[in-house]
Amino acid sequence: MRATEVPAIVGAFLFEPTPYADERGFFCRTFDADVVRSVGLDPNAFIQDSLSRSARGVLRGLHLRSGAGEAKLVRCSYGKIFDVVVDLRPDSPTYRNVASFELSDETQTTLYIPAGCAHGFQALTETADTSYRIDRAHDPAEDVTIAFDDPELAVPWPLPATSMSQRDREAPSLAEVLKQREA
Fold it and tell me: Which Enzyme Commission number(s) are on file for it (predicted)?
């Protein structure tokens, strides 16, 4: 497994496994504490694992946590997703940058998203399972959602959104969220 920095988002990394493939299929390591530690992250900081299953076109996001934020490792364990990160850390040199990735079960690549970044994804296959490893317990009172179609962000979603939560459909713009954070 190797770790690669994401240039558009300071502190974000892609963890790419080295699969062993043969006539049976493949085997790969999807988490390696030593590799995580090698880029300055504490592998023991992750306290919760979650899984979502989405149908093709489902869009989830853009989500972030207020307060201390939430760092996470995200991987598409089955199917394929279009994954998006927005740096919303005011002191970051990549503040307001948007980066997108295609994560799939073929590569099993894991994306590390630093606390203070918004995250969202869209399922590109009929079924897409997305695994999350999160560094703090979820508190719904800290949930923040930003409009997926905010023109300021101009995220190039590859498919029309076939389904999303009411919260995501009614999300405010980035400007509104930033104004609320300043208040």
Answer: 5.1.3.13
